[in-house]
Design a protein that fits this description.
Blueprint lengths: L5 E6 L2 E6 L10 H16 L5 E6 L3 E3 L4 H5 L37 E5 L2 E3 L1 H7 L3 E5 L3 E3 L13 H20 L3 E2 H6 L5 E3 L4 H15 L2 H13 L5 H16 L2 H11 L10
Parallel strand pairs: 2-3, 3-5, 4-6, 5-7, 6-8, 7-10
Antiparallel strand pairs: 1-2, 8-9
Helix pairs in contact: 7-8
Length: 270
């Protein structure tokens, strides 16, 4: 697929997907929505890719839905089915909705939040597995100041990290908050100087791609997202089942060999 509003680059096991409307602060359009989904699925299906990094071109990560497009949006659009290919039926339906599909991807997704993140921008970030941000990143849920509500599962996503009081504050007020406050609330994981964000994020992603078993990461990603719906007994039962399969895997054998032979691992993901 030829992309016009996103960019996709693959290098050293890492796919970088960039929202590419810098003149509009990477505001989401119908075209960008389709292209982002296609790019993420294409990257996830690439056997060379083990980590996906999502970022934005220019000074913004994603300022939410493009206001020009939002103005003309029919109310019934929310019920339009996303143009999505079915994921594995073993994956929860919760992770296969129009904007919340990053958890269904095989590979871990890291959002590198290089600037403003609002509305859908925060939804994309919270649907990622990890979030690294520039010191200059600024955030706003935005919805209440547009006469809207907590869209696309953000109430659930934000509650997972920030707790009810902080979530209520940030959703009700839609006030701006900075990277420091976002990290204190648990909404982001790391903060870097603006000129170091992408280099540090890609260094981390490349290390993850080269040193960690992709099979292990794939299974652990599923465990982490599933655990949000499980009790402790369910988590332990799933872990025990997966542990047996891990012992039978090629990556386990390679994990032992490379440690004993004092060399870098050569994992296959099997």
């Amino acid at each position: 697929m030829e992309f016009t509003q996103v960019k996709l680059q693959v290098e050293a096991g890492v796919a970088t997907v960039s929202l590419d409307r810098p003149d509009r602060m990477n505001g989401v359009t119908a075209v960008m929505e389709r292209e982002l989904y296609a790019a993420m699925r294409q990257a996830d299906a690439d056997p060379q890719v083990r980590v996906i990094v999502l970022t934005g071109e220019g000074r913004a990560f994603c300022a939410g839905m493009d206001m020009a497009e939002l103005e003309d949006l029919a109310p019934e659009d929310i019920y339009e089915p996303a143009k999505m290919r079915p994921f594995d039926t073993a994956i929860r339906a919760d992770f296969q909705s129009r904007y919340i599909y990053f958890p269904a991807l095989v590979n871990p997704v890291i959002s590198a939040i290089n600037g403003a993140a609002a509305g859908l921008g925060i939804v994309f970030a919270l649907a990622s597995d990890m979030r690294f941000a520039s010191e200059k990143a600024v955030f706003s849920t935005a919805f209440s100041r547009r006469g809207l509500i907590a869209e696309h599962g953000i109430a659930w996503l934000m509650l997972q990290t920030a707790g009810p009081g902080v979530t209520a504050d940030l959703l009700f007020s839609a006030r701006r908050f900075d990277a420091g406050e976002a990290k204190s609330a648990g909404l982001i994981d790391r903060i870097y100087p603006p000129d170091e964000l992408m280099a540090r994020t890609l260094d981390y992603a490349r290390e993850l791609a080269s040193l960690a078993s992709p099979r292990s990461v794939r299974v652990m990603k599923r465990q982490l997202w599933d655990a949000r719906f499980q009790n402790l007994q369910d988590v332990v039962t799933q872990a025990n089942r997966e542990m047996i399969e891990s012992f039978r895997s090629e990556d386990f054998q390679e994990g032992v060999r490379h440690f004993l032979e004092k060399r870098s691992p050569v994992f296959t993901g099997h």
